[in-house]
Amino acid sequence: MGSNTLILHSRFGGLGDHLFMSHLPRVAKSCGVRCVLVSNQAPFRDPAYRELIWERNPYVDGFTDEPGPEFKIPPLEAQMNFLDGMMIAHGLDDGTRFHEPELYYTPRLRKDVAGCALYDPNYVSFTGWLFKNSVDHYMARNAIQINAQMALRNRSLPLQMPVPSVVASSVYDLCDIVFSCGELFGLMSGTVEVAAALKKPATVFYGPGHLSEFRHCRRHRYVFVPNSLWWICWMLHFPSRVGKKVRKLSR
Q: Domains of the chain (ranges plus CATH)?
């Protein structure tokens, strides 16, 4: 490919992983890049992510079988977030800071969740050292009233109280749900990245050991949920193991 072509290639297939790069096509075009392509070698946990994030993006010119370049996020300065670092890592800089994910989909109102306080207990990537009832206990202590909960998937920290379950039949349905609810609560997951892209504030819970650079959205409220003495004892006795485990789970 020529020097005036940018190939985007996420090495991870999650919804959030691709949204972390979703601003780059627009940024690239503003910086004078003529052609923006997405590599077909990029993994997707759900094929619909490709359509939602990349095929709908008007700044993407197409797809290529070629891989994108390897990149490394530079150390983040005080007035930068993770998406700014992603931009710099790709040799771009539009002069703006605190970028957010971008989606070019107009969500529809889901009347069944309109105005409700919704909690998504699901996650895939490391969300900090949180135990089964960590978030549930935090909500109880702080009198947070939840009206509905997203249907449980493989990894989750569900509420113990009985609340209606909300099912997202597709990633588009997820966008509609996030757009429609009154208040959104969740963990470090693709759902809160969708919220960032839709300019929807969310309360996001994380535990000890979570890497701060992934808490990038100034619209969200990130809430640290402390753990028991187990975490403190583990850090005191096995600090090297904690560092290795966090690095491994954060990849």
A: 5-89 (no CATH), 117-250 (3.40.50)
